[in-house]
Structures are given as structure tokens and as C-alpha cells.
Design a protein that fits this description.
Layout: H1 3-27, H2 34-55, H3 73-80, E1 99-100, E2 107-108, E3 131-134, E4 137-140, E5 145-146
Antiparallel strand pairs: 1-2, 3-4, 4-5
Helix pairs in contact: 1-2
């Protein structure tokens, strides 16, 4: 139950009742006036708003687009309604999968920091920066974490056969 909407509906309903009772209270004579007619038409609106508020979700979790007190609702809707990636998990590279050297295309095991053929340092799969053997493991130098847990900002890697100007 959304209390804000329900209380708003109650206020509309009470104003409709007040408009219906106003001719009798002000003049002392029961007569059909524009206030009475407006009150007759406002009462069903108040009842429908009360029913709408009673059937809507709790405002601590969700509200009407954050209008009645919960600004985090839009963020929740955006995060839950995000695009779902549909891909086959079998073809994703694992953290202990070997990679190919960018220069000589030799297969490099996951636990080796340099290419066994040309001796060049291997690059981190997450950020593209050079990996080093430190503290008993292969680690990314800027964040000093293992390649699997690298949290460096992503860097666009260029293709090894491209010229510095970007023309092939």
C-alpha cells in the first residue's frame, strides 16, 4: 500500500464531501449549486485514487517513478531492466586459458609472464598493460593484482600489424 497516494485520495474524497455539504452549511438551505455538482463529480475520483494507492507497491521499495518519496526507484528500474547479454558460456575465455603472443603468435601458458619464443612481456587480458612476475604470481603492474582480478581502466589496444598512423 502506498500511503502517499492513499492520503492524497483521502484528501480529494474529503474535499468532495466538503463541497457537497457546503450549500447546506453556508446557506442553511438544501439546494443544488455548482459546489454540490462539483462535489458529486470529485467523490468518485477520490475513491479511485484511494483504491489506486491501496493497490500500488510499498513506497520504500518502489513508487510512481520516484515522485512520492523514493528517488532510487528509477535507478532500480534501470538496473533491473538492463540489456541481458545472450551468449554461450562455453566459448568465453577462462582465467587459466593460454593466450597467443601478439608478435610471434606462440602459445603462452597463463602462468608465464613472457613469451618463450621472442621474450616479449605478455599483456593483461583485462586492461592491455604489461604483466610481470611479482609476489609469486603473474600480476598487472598498475593495479598489482592478478590478471583475473585486474581493475585498471580499459585501454584500447591497437593491432600489431597497423602502422602508427592507423593505416594498414
Amino acid at each position: 500500500m502506498n500511503r502517499s497516494i492513499t492520503l492524497l485520495g483521502l484528501a480529494v474524497l474529503l474535499s468532495g464531501i466538503g463541497l457537497m455539504a457546503s450549500p447546506d452549511a453556508l446557506t442553511g438551505v438544501e439546494s443544488v449549486t455548482p459546489f454540490l455538482e462539483i462535489g458529486v463529480f470529485v467523490m468518485p475520483v477520490g475513491i479511485s485514487v484511494i483504491l489506486w494507492g491501496a493497490s500500488s507497491p510499498d513506497p520504500t521499495v518502489t513508487t510512481v517513478s520516484g515522485v512520492f518519496g523514493n528517488p532510487d526507484e528509477n535507478e532500480l528500474r534501470r538496473s533491473e531492466g538492463g540489456t541481458r547479454r545472450n551468449f554461450d558460456v562455453r566459448y568465453l575465455p577462462g582465467p587459466k586459458e593460454s593466450v597467443n603472443c601478439r608478435q610471434c603468435y606462440t602459445l603462452i601458458p597463463w602462468n608465464v609472464a613472457a613469451c618463450p619464443r621472442c621474450g616479449r612481456k605478455r599483456e593483461c587480458r583485462a586492461c592491455g598493460k604489461t604483466l610481470y612476475f611479482m609476489s609469486g604470481g603473474i600480476r598487472c603492474l598498475p593495479c598489482v593484482r592478478e590478471e583475473t582480478f585486474c581493475n585498471c581502466p580499459k585501454v584500447g589496444r591497437s593491432h600489431p600489424t597497423r602502422a602508427p598512423g592507423g593505416v594498414r
